[in-house]
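debug: dumping io for the single-chain case to check the tokenizer round-trip. Nothing else runs in this session.
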Amino acid sequence: MSENYFQTLDGIKFKLKSPFDFGFMKKYGSVFRIYDDQDSGNICFGCEKNGEKLFVKFAGAPTAEYNGKTGDAVSRLKSAVSVYEDLKHENLIEYVYSEEIGGGFAMVFKWVDGECMGRMYPEAHKRFFSLSVKKRLKVYSDIMSFFDYISKLGYAAVDFYDGSIMYDFSEEKSVICDIDYFRKAPFKNDMGKMWGSQKFQSPEELRLGAKIDEITNVYTLGATAFALFGKFERTPERWELSSELFNVALKAVNDDREKRQTSIAEYISVWNKWEKS
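debug: decoded output
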């Protein structure tokens, strides 16, 4: 693999595969943060203009971690627009608008003051998992509410993982920041290994032709519980909550779809029953 090329924007250094003109970013104000390590072909910016902060996601540049075609990254980002237009939730990042610009495509969101709990951000990840169990239970409650919402609207949470979750430590608020690959369900797996982290993926997300639906969402929600309360492992020794809640999450991540909870509503109902007992 060739070495990365480094350039700067508003004094911030970031990496690419080759030089790219980001002069168009001036439209969104001054850049104060850059996320250059996505493998999706997107590069993201925190921008500020006239006192307003924005989060800008751009496809069209030769990003360092992406090995596909730039045009495919642009097409995928364009297809994500309808998802953000459909889904509005208090714990979801707020979409503003999108446009073709700079030879690519940009989606603009309201900025969120928070840090990503994903393992790719070690400092924020460590800080997040130093939160009390009670605070992490509130985060999980927010995630369950979001999953209930998307399931009722017929969406499958494709590529939902720890990197999709941000936490504002000062406001103690969780925010879902990335739903680009969510799709209307049910549908058949047309990729084989779908987008996402295997720690969160059901067997059907790895098998070409398999059905993806609400029961797939149940698996993802169970896997998220093990991420939050089991240090990503599915063993009683690592589990921080009750054995009853362990069993609820374990049922959700059964490889056999028929043995999981039959809906997100059922999962949440049983989880809440044991959490409050």
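debug: round-trip ok. The CA atoms of residues 154 and 257 lie 18 Å apart.
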